[in-house]
Amino acid sequence: MEGKEQDVSLGANKFPERQPIGTAAQSQDGKDYTEPPPAPLFEPSELTSWSFYRAGIAEFVATFLFLYITILTVMGVNRSSSKCATVGIQGIAWSFGGMIFALVYCTAGISGGHINPAVTFGLFLARKLSLTRALFYIVMQCLGAICGAGVVKGFEGKTFFGSHNGGANFVAPGYTKGDGLGAEIVGTFILVYTVFSATDAKRNARDSHVPWIFWVGPFVGAALAALYHQVVIRAIPFKSS
């Protein structure tokens, strides 16, 4: 018994502290990234800051442009008698994806590039922004969306715009409202999860260690392509001295 007690004592002395797990492990020192502090629920000082209103304007303009381009694309496809004569469904998908890519790139440094009340709501729940800023963003996003759709309505005409439901989503025939709800939940989960992953401080720190890959890799690939084309394809011999 004494031997066993001695072994237990030695083990306790060898590992005097419990190793933290889960969220507790994130508080350890020596991290190669800085975790931003949670945003306060209310931040009155934001209301006197120009950057606060500039961010809201950026969200308004980005959402305006997003709705304007995408709805106009949908209206153009619907106006044609054949989708093959237009950009078609793939063109609509590209307009949505391309606009989000461009607008997030342009506004990420100003407002975070939310361009969607769902994204703002998710980031608010994660304490990434205050309630004051979240409400302001959502209001500006909704106003931008209304103005973007309104401009398209003015271009296309009230009758044509209304007959095609303004390019709005609807539950397709053969599917129930529950199906539509499930699709919206899954799609929004993927969107907001992508936003969280792309803006995570730990991910940014990890990726910051390897950007040289995206310089060396393309240059090496370009050099190999040039060598292959000149020597193999065109059979140009090296000059001999």
TrEMBL record:
PROSITE patterns per the UniProt record, alphabetical: MIP
Keywords: Membrane, Transmembrane, Transmembrane helix, Transport
Pfam family, one: MIP
Taxonomy, superkingdom: Eukaryota
Membrane topology: Multi-pass membrane protein
Transmembrane segments: 52-75, 87-114, 134-152, 212-231
Localization of this protein: Membrane
Region (Disordered): 1-37
Family label: Belongs to the MIP/aquaporin (TC 1.A.8) family.
Protein known as: Aquaporin PIP-type 7a
Natural source organism: Stylosanthes scabra
Lineage per the UniProt record: Eukaryota, Viridiplantae, Streptophyta, Embryophyta, Tracheophyta
Gene: TRG31_2
